[in-house]
Amino acid sequence: MRTTQNKTLPLVLLFAGSMLFAGRAAAQDVTIPVETQHNAIVLQTDAEKHLNMVYLGTKLANSAEYARISKMYRQADDSGVQNDVYTPSGSASLGEPAITVTHADGNKSLNLVYVNHTVSKVSDDVSLLVVTMKDPVYDFEVKLYYKTYYKEDVTEQWSVIKHNEKGVVTLNKYASANLNLKGNTPGGFWLKQYHGNWAMEVQPEEARLTHGIKTIDSKLGTRANLYEHSMFAISMDKPATEDEGKVLYGALEWSGNFRVDFELDVANNLKIIAGINNAASEYHLKPGVEFTTPAFLYTYSDHGKGDASRKLQSWARQYKIVDGNGSRLTLLNNWESTYFDFNESKLAGLLKDTKKLGVDLFLLDDGWFGNNHPRNGDNAGLGDWQENKQKLPNGISSLVKEAQANGVKFGIWIEPEMVNPASDLYKAHPDWVIKQPNRPEKYFRNQLVLDLANPKVQDFVFGVVDNLFTKNPDLAYIKWDCNAVIYNAYSAYLKKDQSHIYVDYVNGLYNVLKRVRAKYPKVPLMLCSGGGGRVDYGALQYFTEYWPSDNTDPLERVFIQWEYSFFYPAITSSNHVTDWGKQPIKYRVDVAMMGKLGFDIVIGKLSEDELAFCQSALKNYDGLKDAIWHGDQYRLASPWDNDVASIMYVNTDKSKAVMFNYLVNNRYGSGTKVPVRLKGLDPNKKYRVKEINIFPGRGSVLGNDDQTFTGDFLMNVGINPKTNASHTSVVLQLEAI
Ligand code: DGJ
């Protein structure tokens, strides 16, 4: 954050004046510009000391001009339009509130006026603005936090709510952030949002917002993104394209119920209010206790969706995900090859296959636990995390050793938040289970959710992970699954505070994950939720990667991975080659390479050529993974609009790149007929282009001509990857010479 300010004050006051400076004859506006490398948010007080967001966009060359912005809008604002930085309800602001409260005396009105603000440096790149606002009548305070990442143009915003009233205050709504985008966008605002379901995650829709309120939300409790996502893009004037247009990307860092309201007012201003979903979730706040909302994350670009997504990806690698600049393990998983049906000798074979294939780790999936209620299907055993003696008489530790003897690592699946009614755990601790005391139980995948609001349950869930690592110090990977939503929300632990359950559940989950990370800071953890039902940065700050979808049909995956990539970097995307779909093994491997590569197939069923292909693709991947995991991603041709989807990754010094091309429309004559222009290269460098991942016995689509071009040529003329019905996927590697 860079600010224009009086050097002697830590505050950013273009025109100083606040309750801090009470006693001055005429209060002057306080203007707070929050700047990052390319962007600015400007907050400003009005005559009544309400703090408004008067600007969000490209930063101005002359920051002294920020103070003049609101004058351009006064007329419109006087007509009843408000742009409070955190809209209270029940007093003078009449738009959709960011906060609604019931005071200790039962009164429901809240007025928030600016008190002061501070700016502090967290590092060269990161700054923190804290704005304090208070109700002049009630002893009630809201602090707004803006953590800005200068180089990445990213802001995380949250609020901390506190009071000193004589009794408990009920928070009826408590958003994380309230943005206001001004209506000087003749083409309106365009919302790109995501919906989905199991095996069909992140389906995009984009439409112009009309007047009134559009809400996207979740009330599922756990697995909160199953049907809708809090992540969205707002384009201004017209839908931004990959390289052009003004676009704001936002997402809530929260793994539970969320709610994002988009309110278009009479002057065409757009108010965005994002936070925990307040449905059935009033929060009772005692005097002196702070309530901290999760962060709402956003970035803005005036260079289109591609630029915005690279900012988010780079921010995530730098600051959010575990080991974002580090390495990842390639793996062989057994879910689709065995399901619940395995034993030690079958696994011994799979460990050998892991080595033969050439990946780093074997991942044992669901089905290894439960004795009184053996986990031989999805209807029993969850909660009983002891090795099943019939399948694994020698336990996990012998498998870890056997893996080591084969020269590979060993990882394991758990779903520690859940319980099957058919389990010892359910019988021993019925009060640990979320269920209504007086209603019939309702199951999702035959299971119920444990009550993580209860600290004893948190200890139990932490213990599941801790015991595994304590007993098996060489365990190298955990896949953490979550397959049920919360029905019949009721916590025996919370007693009279039942409306806290959704919030306290997620905070309980985060407590557990914090403890796991404190003890095991770097061990790779995959965030899975019956597919991609829980992909968000609230959870991902504890994980190294996520599982985008159980749908591993590579044709579907091109679309799914494409959409996730607007928010999450490739290093976090676990992509497994499976038997889903009708595509040849080459296509399946080529698609899975666009992220963190894994396999979930029966190696013994591969032909000699197929196995040789996979082995050599893994070697190619080894040479390219730095560009894919840590480089910049460029979307060249969208699968939604073209026969062939093209995506590329360029490493940080632009010396190496890879271009993936996939036929997504296999009708007669489909394919790349013209060159595809590359992006992100150094125009002055010369690149040798080579097709890789060539199936044994086939020649390169590029033929024998000299394939050395300048970056200039490749970015202005392009190259034809000749992807068509005979070559349904083509991978080109570029190396600077
Ligand atoms: C759902 C996950 O998405 C799958 O990958 C697999 O782990 C199953 N659960 C196991 O029950």
TrEMBL record:
Belongs to the glycosyl hydrolase. Its EC number is 3.2.1.22. It comes from Mucilaginibacter oryzae. It comes from the Bacteria. The active site is at residues 481, 550. Residues 50-286 form the Glycosyl hydrolase family 36 N-terminal domain. The keyword Hydrolase applies. Residues 645-734 form the Glycosyl hydrolase family 36 C-terminal domain. Residues 1-27 form the signal peptide. This is Alpha-galactosidase. Substrate binds at residues 198, 365-366, 445, 479-483, 528, 550.
